[in-house]
Structure formats: C-alpha cells, structure tokens
Amino acid sequence: xxxxxxxxxxxxxxxxxxxxxxxxxxxxxxxxxxxxxxxxxxxxxxxxxxxxxxxxxxxxxxxxxxxxxxxxxxxxxxxxxxxxxxxxxxxxxxxxxxxxxxxxxxxxxxxxxxxxxxxxxxxxxxxxxxxxxxxxxxxxxxxxxxxxxxxxxxxxxxxxxxxxxxxxxxxxxxxxxxxxxxxxxxxxxxxxxxxxxxxxxxxxxxxxxxxxxxxxxxxxxxxxxxxxxxxxxxxxxxxxxxxxxxxxxxxxxxxxxxxxxxxxxxxxxxx
Length: 271
Prior knowledge:
7 strands, Rossmann fold, two-stranded parallel ribbon, alpha/beta
C-alpha cells in the first residue's frame, strides 16, 4: 500500500506541473443569490464549469458566507473560505482519482455550484471548504436538504475550533432536523471503500494545536445507515492536495490525504 500511495503523490505532482452562538439563516430571500457578496472593489468572479456529461466531476460548493467578502485571489492562501485551495486542490485530486481508479472521472475541469442551485442534484458528491463561516439562506437550506435526502454526499473540510464546529452543527440542525454528527471509527465502511485506511490519526497540515476528528451524519440518524456527510474537523485535507506538488508537507501525509478523498468518492458512489 505504501508503494501505491507514493505513486499517488507522484501522479499529482506530474499532473499539476503539466497544468498551469450562530445565525442560521441570513435575511436573504429564497429567490436571491446565495453566493457571498463581492466587495465594491472586487471584480465579479467567473468560473468556467464543465458541462454535465454523467462522468464523475469534482464539485465545490459556493455558499453564503458570514464574512461577506470575496477577498483577492483564490488558492495558495487567498480568496473566500468556500474557495480555499481552489483550483489546485481540485485539479490535483481529480488527477489522482483518475490515476488510481477505473472511475474515469472528468479530467477536463472541475465545477463550482451554488448551494442553492438545483444543478447540484446532478452530482452525487460535493466538497465544502470552510463551512465554519457558512450562514445559509433559506434557499440553500431547502436545496441541500433535498440533495442529501435524495442520495447526495457532502465532504466538509478545512474548519477547526469550537466556534466553527458550533456553527456547522447548527447549520445542519436546520438542514436535517433530528440528525446529529457522531465520531467515526476506523471500522466505518467509508474508510475501507477503496484503500484500507490504517489509522485516523492524520495530523492537520496547519493549526496543529487541534486534535483532528472525523465525524459523520447518517441517514435517518441511524449510525448503521448511509453516511450523508463527513466532516474532517480540525483538519484540512484540501491543503495536502493543493500543495502535494510543491513538497511543503511530508509525502506520506499527502498520500494519506489523497487516500481519504478517494475513499469518500468511492463510498458515495456505491451507497
């Protein structure tokens, strides 16, 4: 397995080098855009999504942020929370998924879809960065509730601390009332869906004072039921993906972060 993992990071590096107390619902109405409001000095952000063609496509969720600012730039430390590590993490991950599985994912591009957009329902897996700053609109709540109940799967990543956890917990109490997050153990099927994960002790790439936990929210609040949401709490596997071609972090840890991501996708597509 170690040999396979080493190849995983090598593939990512090659692919990347070859390519250039919580407010639950904001006052916005269901018909208003759910994306964060750009500051007057920031130009509109345009993302060139790839058309739907039934192939697995990496999807990142753009949500209404409590911080209300786009900031400057994306990835490599810039941009709003929902866009952190974009586009390098997304691109590197999809190349890895293509390299180590027979899934034949879409490698032409990745998509950004608003949390309120019904288009999200076309895609079975979606990635959410920095959910600790999410202030969902009613349109987002309604759309995400339907998405999850119909079989969708969310990956929550890059958030930490009790304050951010309290917001995330409160958000999902509104999206899926009566459901609660539970700590996940190594025996959970998601950790054995493709790679055999050997330990959940994946240290965070930054903010290492926090102890990472993997938490899950299951269908019908049944711990034996389908996992609908996985939370990489006190961690940031997107950072490992983004910087895997630059050597910032130990290769073994980047390998593990990729294995978790691959397992998430394979699990979600087979449940």
